[in-house]
UniProtKB/TrEMBL annotation:
Gene3D superfamilies: 2,3-Dihydroxybiphenyl 1,2-Dioxygenase, domain 1. GO terms for molecular function: dioxygenase activity. It comes from Brevibacillus parabrevis. The lineage of its organism: Bacteria, Bacillati, Bacillota, Bacilli, Bacillales. CDD domains: PcpA_C_like. Residues 7-131, 152-269 form the VOC domain. This is Putative ring-cleaving dioxygenase MhqO. PROSITE patterns: VOC. Pfam families: Glyoxalase. Keywords: Dioxygenase, Oxidoreductase.
Amino acid sequence: MSQQTAGIHHITAFVKNAQDNVDFYAGILGLRLVKKTINFDAPEVYHLYFGNEVGSPGTAITFFPWETARHGRIGGGQVGYTTFLVPVGSLDFWEKRLDKFQVEYRRVERFQEIYLQFADKDGLQLEIVEREGGPASQWTFGGIPADKAIKGFGGAILYSVAPKHTMEVLEKLMGLTRVGEENGLVRFQAPGDLGNIIDVNAEPMPRGAGGAGTVHHIAWRAKDDQDHRLWQSRVAQSGFHPTDIIDRQYFHAIYFREPGEILFEIATDPPGFERDEPFESLGEKLMLPEWYEPHRAEIEQGLPPIAVRVLAEDKE
């Protein structure tokens, strides 16, 4: 394979309440809010990025909090579960933490691994698994020590309306390797050490409906702009219709919908979230692209105030 993605770059989802979103992903899960910006296509809505200490590729889960959004329905054409990766030996810690915050979860086993499956306040399906791979997070918050902190993505479970075609795209276009099959799931692996394990539901799933509690798209990693342009050409040559390259400030992006109706993005690793804020103050200020700066006062007035805060359960 001359070109293959290292794995997941980021995953983006819809939620309703912005402060609830911050409280769950920063307050409970201990991720760092690394960027507070807006949906460039709908500037009245935040775009919030959470990840490790710098939101490295393979760690960033991002959200469009829209208070008036309808509730979505998870199904075919979406990411079914987003998988977070934690250090080996920390699953008991996470069980106790979820218990402390009264987050219901269940233990499931697949491919000889134990997962904790749960949902956020909007019903977005999440899971935690422990593995050796991937660099440890250097971010600690709210009573989560670094040796227990989420490292980034372990991967995802994809729900497809045409799984055979989705799996063909993963293998032949994206360069993942098929490594196993078990209980109706087919497992693929990318060469990276984060966001590298993708399970696909082998049976077609009824179509989902977008809205709060659902994933909007899954983004795959491109090494740099040169690699990205090659991806755009390869996607087109494979019979799909990639968008033009879009400047998202912190990465460049192309999008296309694969035959199982999941929206795929391919995003560049650079430049990253420190391009417009120093490490020490990532995520503290509302960052706007230059074409929205003249409208800052109006935009800020329309957005609800949010704060990263240690929750009451961690103060006891």
